[in-house]
Specification:
Strand content: under 5%
Helix content: over 70%
Number of domains: 2
Low-confidence stretches: none
Structural class: mainly alpha
Number of helices: 5
Largest sheet: none
Length: 135
């Protein structure tokens, strides 16, 4: 296993944990998003300072678009987390993760210009999995 795979696995575990904790926080969706974003900003700032030189030759439009999509997604998802019970939060989380997995898969199909039988089967199975897991 290489370091990128290991980092991806650890990130997956951490991304899987934070919504479960946020659901227990008792914060309303918008306030939860603000607290989350504030803690993230404070946490990543020391690491970002060493890369400030990259600001001048970056593609700002892509970065801003990524931030806007993430902000809207965070607001929506924290709204769900704030209203879901601890017993039902897993259902909504699974649904979001399945859709989140399908998006880059569709992107990969578009970038490759073709869809394989295995990818098509994966999309069908994702629909089946989301149906079965949210029941």
């Amino acid at each position: 296993m290489n370091s990128l795979e290991l980092k991806s696995i650890i990130a997956g575990v951490l991304f899987g944990i934070w919504p479960l904790f946020m659901n227990r926080s008792g914060l309303a969706g918008n306030l939860a998003s603000f607290v989350f974003a504030s803690v993230v900003l404070l946490s990543v700032s020391p690491f970002a300072v060493s890369n400030l030189s990259q600001l001048s030759n970056s593609y700002w439009l892509w970065a801003v678009a990524a931030g806007v999509f993430a902000a809207v997604g965070l607001l929506l998802f924290n709204s769900v987390l704030s209203k879901a019970t601890p017993q039902s939060v897993g259902t909504f989380f699974v649904l979001m993760i399945i859709i989140q997995t399908v998006v880059p898969s569709v992107y990969q199909v578009i970038m490759n210009g073709e869809i394989s039988i295995t990818k098509l089967a994966g999309f069908v199975l994702a629909v089946v999995a989301s149906f079965l897991l949210v029941k």
